[in-house]
Specification:
221 residues, alpha/beta, Collagenase (Catalytic Domain), 29% strand, globular
Length: 221
């Protein structure tokens, strides 16, 4: 999917996030990282935001040993950690998926309907998806966050490694709290970015997310 924006539909206490058309890019110092969901109880909407608090860090990330994802995700963690001036985000790779806050797998998710989905097909060779299980009524984000990186091509196809690398950075961007997509292809958080690293706008947006009160509470099983 090369064109995307937000469309929301309520299903019980969960929100389904899918993609449709976007407007023309508008450059500014940052973009909207929060998402809107139908208020529970209604009417109206809630603006939902999330970032990892200091006492929830380092964020524990488990990565499936497939498609070179451990190396790609380790680099993605380094990229986002270095984006912050004061160490606002910190993550570590763990060996036990049962203790993880974020689980990263290769391939496509089996269930594409039950959770809020941040979908991004970033190149023809690969795609990514981040699933957030949000209870809108209680403003709880139920962990773990699930990230999927799908090669969609043979390992030796041209462009697959750069695609997996930027997809890992993009999807981890959702997992750290950039819940929405940018509307500009010069940002890594655009649905189909033309860059392979966070832009200044991505960095400014991430910093804004971490210096703005969040209303989603991470809840571990």
């Amino acid at each position: 999917m090369s064109r995307a924006s937000r469309c929301l539909a309520a299903a019980a206490a969960l929100v389904a996030f899918a993609c449709s058309d976007i407007g023309a890019p508008v450059r500014s110092d940052l973009y909207e990282w929060r998402i809107e969901a139908p208020a529970v109880p209604g009417p109206g909407v809630d603006t939902l935001s999330f970032h990892w608090s200091r006492n929830e860090q380092p964020v524990r990330v488990w990565v499936e040993d497939a498609f070179g994802l451990p190396d790609h995700m380790a680099r993605a963690i380094d990229v986002w950690e270095s984006a912050f001036l004061y160490g606002e985000f910190d993550a570590t790779v763990v060996s036990d998926s049962g203790t993880a806050d974020v689980i990263v797998r290769g391939g496509t998710p089996e269930n594409k309907l039950q959770r809020l989905r941040l979908h991004s097909a970033l190149r023809p060779e690969c795609a990514g998806e981040t699933q957030l299980d949000i209870d809108v009524a209680t403003h709880e984000l139920r962990l773990p966050i699930r990230v999927f990186v799908d090669p969609r091509s043979l390992p030796d196809d041209p462009g697959i490694e750069p695609c997996l690398a930027l997809t890992s950075i993009h999807e981890l961007g959702h997992a750290i709290g950039i819940l929405a997509h940018s509307e500009d292809p010069e940002d890594i958080m655009y649905t189909d970015p033309e860059v392979d690293l966070p832009s200044n706008r991505d960095i400014t947006t991430a910093e804004a997310a971490y210096h703005t009160p969040a209303n989603l509470l991470a809840v571990r099983p």
